[in-house]
Amino acid sequence: MSWLDSHCHINDAAFRDDLDNVLNNMVFYDVKKAMIVSSYLEDYEFAKTINHKEIKFKRSLGIYPGDADNVDDDLFNKYYELYKSDDVTAIGEIGLDYHYGKENKEKQIEIFIKQLKIAQELDKPIIVHTRDAIQDTYDILKKYPCKGVIHCYSDSAMMAKNLVKLGYYISISGTVTWKNAREPLEVIRTVPVDRLLIETDCPYLSPVPNRGKRNEPSNVVYTGRKICEELGINEEFFKFIINDNYDKLFGI
After folding, report:
1. What secondary structure does DSSP assign to 144-202, as a single string?
2. Full DSSP string of 132-147
């Protein structure tokens, strides 16, 4: 059983000069599945060109909350048409982000809910981004139930437990390896392993020992091994579980 990266942005400009090396590193470190996440139409088009005979890629597309102010009906309809494509496995990342302020809170909520309704209509999983907005995110997800994952989870263990009760998976990033990782460690000890996923969110959030460098999917092994170490579980067993979780959520 191989490792996987449930959330990566190798379609980002940060990888354009050495993408082949990044893919080869994935194979070398036995990362054989990955979800390529796109927030922009041009990134999604590039994501469709990324392939490797030894890696199974899936693709998602979503309107990022930070871009809510730039979305008009014409642009939203373009996303909607793509959401209907079989190539779009999941709708995301979508959600709420109040980190830089709440001035456009109502617009973010509007766009989030519209995409949740589409996910319900199309019966597709969602990939949720939430930053400094966990209570609003939870309340909305409870009102508009979907299947999905809370990506790069960074809130409390108690809220993670509540989200799991709604049916969501919790995805852990490289922050669990950082020295100040008190909350991520509490989360992995609280959430059942059959509701966990792992991710890089590359090119961001590199785990130790590569913190401070550009992140890439091969680094997901450090996150996975840290979780195994903290929980005292066998790596092969953990890989089996997260592959099963990934396949159940996103389809084999």
Report:
1. S---EEETT--S-HHHHHHHHHTT-EEEE-GGGGSTT-HHHHHHHHHS-GGGEEE---T
2. S-HHHHHHHHHHS---
The range of the structural domain enclosing residue 118 comes to: 3-250
Q: Who contacts 115 (Cβ-Cβ below 8 Å, separation ≥6)?
A: 62, 63, 91, 94, 126
Total domain count, the chain: 1
pLDDT tens sequence across 154-206: 999 999 999 999 999 999 999 999 999 999 999 999 999 999 999 999 999 99
pTM over 0.90: yes
How many CA atoms lie within 13 Å of 79's alpha carbon, on the beta-carbon side?
27
Residue 85 tokens, joined: 């494509």
Question: The tokens 């209570």 sit on which residue?
Answer: 135
Selection from 230, 152, 149 nearest residue 188 by Cα: 230
Q: Report the alpha-carbon distance of residue 123 to residue 139 in Å, rounded.
A: 20
Nearest to 114 by CA among 83, 135, 85: 83
Q: What is the pLDDT of residues 214-251, one digit of tens each?
A: 999 999 999 999 999 999 999 999 999 999 999 999 99
Domain CATH code at residue 168: 3.20.20.140
